Recover the amino acids of this structure.
C-alpha cells in the first residue's frame, strides 16, 4: 500500500485565507482548536495560579489590551509611539472620578473608557491627517507633554498623584474582568478587520490616496478606528489604576508606550493575536528577569531591534504558516 | 535681568542648534529619523568620562576617541540594522528607538547615576557683559555651534563627499546614475550625525551632570528644532533654534524651569498640526499628510 503526504488544510481552504469549506468534525477542529487556545488558556488556567502570578497575569493582560489597541491603530496606518497617552488619560479620568467624586469602579471604568476615547480622539483630531512618522512623533510627544503639564501645574495631585483609590473586591474578579476584555478585544477586532469595514481600513493603510479616490471619506474611518483604539487603551488605564489603587504620572511613563510596540513587533503586527502573544511572552519574561532591574528595558530594546531585522513578520504569522503547512499521511487510491 | 535673559537665550539657541545639527544631517541626507540620537549623545558623554577617569587618558585625547567611537557606532548601526529595513519608516523608527532605549538603560543598569558624572570644562572662568556674567564654556559652546555650522556649509559645498551628500538628499536615483553609492553615503551621514551628537555632548555636558534622562530630553529638543525648522533644512534649524531657544529661556525665567521642556513639546505638537513640513522645509507636503 502506497502512501503520500498531504497538507491537512487540503479541502478546507477552498478559496482564500478566510473562506473555508468544512465537511467534517476533523476539519472543524482544525479551525477551532487554535481559536480555543487563548480562551481556555486565559480563563481556565488563571484561577489555579498563585496570587503572585495572578497579579502578573493581570498586568500582562493589561499590556495585552494596550498592544491589541496599538495593533488596531496600526491597521489603519496610525503609528502610535505613545500608547501611554491612552493609558494615562484613562487612569486619570477613573482616578479623578473615584478620588474626588467617590464613584465606584463599576461606573468609573466605563466612563473612563468612553470619556478617555472621546478625549483622545478630539485631542488627536487635528493631527489625523499626518502620515507615518509625523503622526508617530506627535504620539511620542503628547504623553510626555501631558505628564510635564501635570508636573508644572500641579493639577490632579501633581507629582504625588491620586492615592487610595477603591480596589477591586478581590483579585479573581479583576482577573476575569481584564481577561474577558482581552478576549472581547481580540475576537472583536479580528471580526472587524475581517468585515468589509476592515477591508477599507486595511486599504487606508496600504494606499490612502486610492481609497480616497474611491469616494470614501478616510478621515471618518480613521476617526472611528482611533476612537475604538483609544477607548480600549483608556479602559486598560482605568482597570490598571483601580488595581494599583493609584493614578499618577507613571501612567504616562515610557513603559506603557514601549511594551505594546515590543509585544506587537515580537508577536506579529496586524494580526491581533500576535501582540497578545507577544505581551504574554514578554511581560512574564520581564517578571522572571525582575532581579535584573533596568536591564529588562535593555532587553526590550534589543528584542525590538532583533525582531525588526531578523523576523519582521513576528512569531504568530510564522507559527500560523507552519500550522497550515502541517502534513499527514494518506493512502494512495 | 533682560540683558541676561537675552544673552542666555542666545546661548541656549546655540545649544539647541548644536543638538539638532546631527539629527538633521542624518535625516536630511538618508531620510533616517535616528531615534537613537539622544542615546548616542549620552553614550559619548559617559564614554569620555570613562576614558578620562577610569583609564586616565588626557582630556583632549579622550574627546577625540569618543567622537570617533560615536562615528563608528553610527556606521555600524547603519550597516547592521538600518540597511535591512531601509525605506520602511516605521521599522526604522522602531529599530533606532529600541536601540537607543537599550543603550540608555544599559547605563542606568550599570548605575551611571549621580553627581560625580560630570565632564571638566574646557576653559575656566567667566567674562562680564555689563552686570551679566557668562562663563567661558558657554561662550565656547556658541563658538563651536557657529563654527560647526560654517564647517558643514563649506563641507557640503566644496568637498566631494559633501557634494555627494547633497546629491543623495536631492534625488537619490539621479545620484545613483552618477556613480554615487547611496548606501555608503547613508552610512557616512549616520556616522557624521553621530559624531556631531558626540561633539555636542562633549561641549554641552560640562554645564551639568551626565544623566540618562538627559538622552530623552536631547532627543525631544533635537526633534523640536528639526520639526519647527523643517526636517532637512539648515536655515530652518538656525531660525528654529533661535525661536525655541529664546522661548525656553523666557519661559524658564518668567514661569519657572518646570515649563521649559513644555515649550519644545508644545512647539512640536503645534507645528506638526499646522504646518508639518516646518517653517523652512523643502520636503514634499503630500508625503507627510493627506
Amino acid at each position: 500500500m502506497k502512501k503520500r503526504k498531504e497538507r491537512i488544510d487540503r479541502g478546507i481552504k477552498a478559496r482564500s485565507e478566510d473562506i473555508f469549506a468544512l465537511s467534517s468534525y476533523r476539519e472543524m477542529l482544525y479551525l477551532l482548536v487554535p481559536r480555543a487556545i487563548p480562551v481556555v488558556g486565559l480563563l481556565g488556567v488563571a484561577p489555579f495560579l498563585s496570587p503572585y502570578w495572578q497579579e502578573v497575569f493581570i498586568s500582562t493582560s493589561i499590556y495585552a489590551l494596550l498592544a491589541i489597541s496599538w495593533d488596531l491603530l496600526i491597521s489603519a496606518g496610525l503609528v502610535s509611539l505613545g500608547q501611554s497617552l491612552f493609558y494615562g488619560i484613562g487612569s486619570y479620568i477613573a482616578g479623578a472620578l473615584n478620588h474626588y467624586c467617590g464613584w465606584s469602579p463599576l461606573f468609573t471604568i466605563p466612563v473612563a473608557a468612553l470619556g478617555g476615547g472621546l478625549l483622545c480622539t478630539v485631542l488627536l483630531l487635528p493631527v489625523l491627517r499626518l502620515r507615518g512618522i509625523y503622526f508617530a512623533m506627535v504620539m511620542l510627544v503628547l504623553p510626555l507633554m501631558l505628564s510635564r503639564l501635570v508636573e508644572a501645574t500641579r493639577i490632579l495631585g501633581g507629582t504625588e498623584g491620586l492615592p487610595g483609590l477603591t480596589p477591586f473586591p478581590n483579585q479573581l474578579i479583576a482577573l476575569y474582568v481584564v481577561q474577558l476584555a482581552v478576549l472581547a478585544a481580540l475576537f472583536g477586532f479580528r471580526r472587524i478587520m475581517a468585515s468589509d469595514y476592515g477591508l477599507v481600513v486595511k486599504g487606508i493603510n496600504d494606499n490612502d490616496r486610492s481609497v480616497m479616490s474611491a469616494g470614501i471619506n478616510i478621515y471618518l474611518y480613521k476617526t472611528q478606528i482611533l476612537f475604538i483604539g483609544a477607548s480600549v487603551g483608556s479602559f486598560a488605564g482605568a482597570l490598571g489604576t483601580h488595581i494599583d489603587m493609584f493614578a499618577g504620572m507613571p501612567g504616562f511613563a515610557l513603559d506603557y508606550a514601549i511594551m505594546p510596540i515590543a509585544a506587537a513587533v515580537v508577536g506579529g503586527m496586524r494580526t491581533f493575536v500576535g501582540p497578545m502573544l507577544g505581551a504574554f511572552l514578554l511581560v512574564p519574561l520581564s517578571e522572571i528577569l525582575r532581579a535584573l532591574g533596568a536591564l529588562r528595558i535593555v532587553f526590550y530594546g534589543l528584542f525590538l531591534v532583533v525582531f525588526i531585522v531578523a523576523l519582521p513578520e513576528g512569531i504568530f504569522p510564522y507559527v500560523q504558516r507552519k500550522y497550515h503547512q502541517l502534513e499527514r499521511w494518506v493512502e494512495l487510491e | 535681568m533682560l540683558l541676561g535673559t537675552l544673552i542666555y537665550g542666545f546661548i541656549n539657541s546655540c545649544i539647541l542648534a548644536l543638538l539638532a545639527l546631527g539629527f538633521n544631517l542624518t535625516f536630511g541626507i538618508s531620510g533616517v529619523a535616528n531615534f537613537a540620537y539622544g542615546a548616542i549623545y549620552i553614550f559619548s558623554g559617559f564614554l569620555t568620562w570613562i576614558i578620562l577617569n577610569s583609564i586616565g587618558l588626557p582630556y583632549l585625547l579622550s574627546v577625540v576617541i569618543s567622537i570617533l567611537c560615536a562615528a563608528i557606532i553610527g556606521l555600524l548601526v547603519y550597516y547592521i540594522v538600518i540597511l535591512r529595513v531601509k525605506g520602511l519608516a516605521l521599522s526604522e523608527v522602531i529599530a533606532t528607538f529600541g536601540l537607543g532605549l537599550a543603550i540608555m538603560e544599559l547605563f542606568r543598569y550599570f548605575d551611571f547615576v549621580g553627581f560625580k558624572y560630570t565632564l571638566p570644562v574646557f576653559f575656566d572662568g567667566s567674562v562680564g557683559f555689563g552686570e551679566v556674567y557668562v562663563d567661558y564654556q558657554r561662550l565656547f559652546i556658541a563658538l563651536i555651534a557657529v563654527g560647526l555650522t560654517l564647517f558643514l556649509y563649506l563641507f557640503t559645498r566644496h568637498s566631494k563627499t559633501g557634494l555627494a551628500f547633497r546629491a543623495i538628499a536631492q534625488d537619490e536615483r539621479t545620484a545613483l546614475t552618477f556613480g554615487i553609492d547611496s548606501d555608503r553615503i547613508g552610512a557616512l551621514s549616520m556616522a557624521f550625525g553621530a559624531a556631531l551628537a558626540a561633539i555636542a555632548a562633549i561641549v554641552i555636558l560640562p554645564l551639568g551632570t551626565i544623566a540618562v534622562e538627559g538622552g530623552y530630553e536631547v532627543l525631544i529638543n533635537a526633534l523640536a528644532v528639526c520639526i519647527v525648522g523643517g526636517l532637512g533644512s539648515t536655515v530652518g534649524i538656525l531660525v528654529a533654534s533661535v525661536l525655541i531657544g529664546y522661548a525656553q529661556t523666557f519661559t524658564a525665567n518668567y514661569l519657572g524651569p518646570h515649563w521649559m521642556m513644555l515649550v519644545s513639546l508644545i512647539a512640536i505638537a503645534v507645528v506638526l498640526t499646522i504646518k508639518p513640513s516646518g517653517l523652512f522645509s523643502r520636503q514634499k507636503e503630500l508625503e507627510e499628510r493627506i
